[in-house]
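Illustration: histidine kinase.
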Amino acid sequence: MNIKFLTSYRTRMTIGFLLVIMLALIVALAIADRQVGRVIGRDVLQLSSDAAARFNYDIDSYVEQLAESAAPLAAGEQLQHFLRDREAARPEETEAIEKELRKYVATNRPEIAGMFLMSSHDKLISIFSYYYSQSNFYSNEPWFALPFGEDIELYPTHYTKYPNQAPFPVFSVILPIFDVETVEAAGHFVLDIMPEKVINKFGDTGLGRTGYHFVASSDGIVVYHPNKDWIGKSMSETPLDKLQYALSDTASKVSWEGEEWYVSVNRSNRMNWNIFSIVPSAEMESGLRAVRMSIVWTFAIVSLLILIVVPVLTNRFTKRIIVLKNVMAKAATGDLEVRAEVHARPDEIHYLYRGFNQMMDRLEKLVGEVYELELKEMQLSIRQKEAVIRSLQNQINPHLLYNTLGIIKSMAYLENMPKIEKIAKSLADVYRYTARFENEEVTLKDELDIVSKYLEIVRLRFPSSFTSMLSVPDKFLAVPCMKLTLQPIVENAVKYGIEPRGGDGAVIVSAYSEGEDLLVEIADNGKGIPQDQLDGLRAMLEQATEEPDKAPSGEGSLGLPNVHARLVLRYGREYGVRLDSFVGQGTVVTVRIPFRHPAAQDRENE
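Result:
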């Protein structure tokens, strides 16, 4: 596979367009499925609702027709006499009324399975014969015990219990009969109606091309279905069993008989029947399939256009980008004079060309400036080395000093002058300590040792009046500190606090911890520092905190500001020297350094 082809701008752009179109196709199909599914469900529900409304209207009209057609029969003289008479009817009277009832049923009423006349005096006449016109034959019928009211009533679907007949499903219409003289309810007609024949009279029950309606009672008995074999059976005994679980206020999609169906259910107001409307989803979703095919064809056509048009268009763009890429490749080899040819077309590529040229101009200028800076830095380095050489030439050779002090020590020993011997040894140790440059940090013990030697020299100078004390706990002796931190401060204490008083005074060095810091105090009992001079020294310390690399060195290279600046540069702005003085009482210099163990210091250096 050609990797370069797959990574080219033109190919990625084409693939990107195809992916966008494919994503749009998926989104469009999802929206179409969702929206069309909603519309289909709404249409099925509407058709079902229309069928239920039409069915309710037909039932109401049918019952009204029954009432109108039975009114003349109820007003007949023989029937009225039967209702008024409390005595049992004579056979000839019963047969005459039975004949009228059968005549009524036979006249365009094939859906009536049975008709009964009941009086309020517990007398009954049926259409089946004089013998079966007895109440005890029908006492198990659900309508038998109904009260005699003034309104038309409907009794839901039930199975008949006629004598010597197989049961079959019917619903009952109870029509009140009024006494024509008293206008009071004197009895009623009971008409057992076969639902299938009634519904067939209502006309077409189809739904679309292949869908249809069917009716079931509230207890699941099939009242009407195009398949006559299922009528009168419970839905659970037929393949309709799965559809009875679709009872809801919305259209449901159900898999039934190896096919997807939309099912909607409405309830009849009078009969308490469930009117099922079912239609194959394939029939209802024909529009959705058309929409899907339209989207797929659109995708195919647009994809073909992309494969043809996008490479042509991207070639126009990538050609100029490739030119810029080649120019940049030359610049990467170190050719800073290469430039892109800028055309007059004011588009994004034009500005890229201009930006590249400006970048190269600036880069060429910066390279020249860097070259000049490097040259100046080399010249400065040479001058610094020359200055160091001159400084070294102007210094006294330390070995000469050490040898001279050694000779003085030896002569003092031979001449039995122990004080001179001690001074020479201490002075040699002090200079040897200050002259070593290999370590920037030492332990506090090393620093205190050199302070002790310096104080020995001072005590030899003022043997009777000067005292000193080093009061530092052993746990602090291993703490690292900057070299030549304490000795210059002790030297200042002697110079400005002890010498002006002829050596009469004391210098005390102590230490204590404060949190994660170690504080070392150098105190003297000299004359103290006047306030204006103290303010000037504190200002110098503050300046050394802000600009430690420019701190003044004071008198010599190891003054207070110098020590303070070195501590700030080494440990940070929170560390350094603090100066407190009281006129006539003395001066205290506090040195704050980090309280660190040598092992921790070694880990930090690693």
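Reading the tokens back as a structure: The first helix runs from residue 3 to 7.
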